[in-house]
Description:
The chain is built from 13 helices and no strands. The chain is mainly alpha-helical. It has two domains: 3-22 and 138-218, Endonuclease Iii, domain 2, CATH 1.10.1670.10; 32-132, Hypothetical protein, domain 2 (Endonuclease III, domain 1).
Amino acid sequence: MNREAACEAYRRLLAEYPVVDDRRHFLDFSNPFEALILTILSAQTTDRAVNAVRDTLFSRYPTPEALARAEPEEVEPLIRTIGFHHTKARYIVETARKLVADFGGEVPRTMEELQSFPGVGRKTANIVLSHAFEINVGIAVDTHVRRVSKRLGFTDSTNPNIIERDLVALFPEEAWRDINYLLIRHGRAVCTAQNPKHEQCIVADLCRYYRELRGGEEK
DNA sequence: ATCCCGAGGG
DNA sequence: CCCTCTGGAT
């Protein structure tokens, strides 16, 4: 897909899913430490579930130092409702310990350093950088971004790294932070994995997948 | 039943 | 590439 068509799709998605509006329901990323921990906890879960545990978690462990002193076993009950709590309790305690031991309690601001924390892959690191630090080094690619990008024709690949490279080349840097969010919204509401709602899709006329489907059944 | 703004390990 | 980890919402 060419850049003009991609940006047209971006504009329409932005109008359909207002990002500023949606951010109210997203996680509060004002504190980098909390942002890192909450983003780790967010994996394969809803932001509602994560928001439900944030107050108890951070009132008990307000700093990296406090969380570093805890044992995963005592943190686990506090985050039981988010799922994957056994693994995630270990991730966030070890993350806090590494934060204190290697970074003086300050959350680092590079992709490489962030990905050295347990539970932080490229997707999570991208989110922390772009939302907590306003640093755009790339585009966070999750399963929704992956599916929607492939269908629309933003990329031909299924490899997340190549998808990210294609998206980065396709969109201006100002759009990087929001395209992730827009594609996720669209992926959940309309461009679903099964039975996508083509009739509700605001970018159907730009969509390679939709074009192929119609071509396949009409001729 | 199915899915959720994934990452680590085999 | 595959599998596992998990509870909650719908």
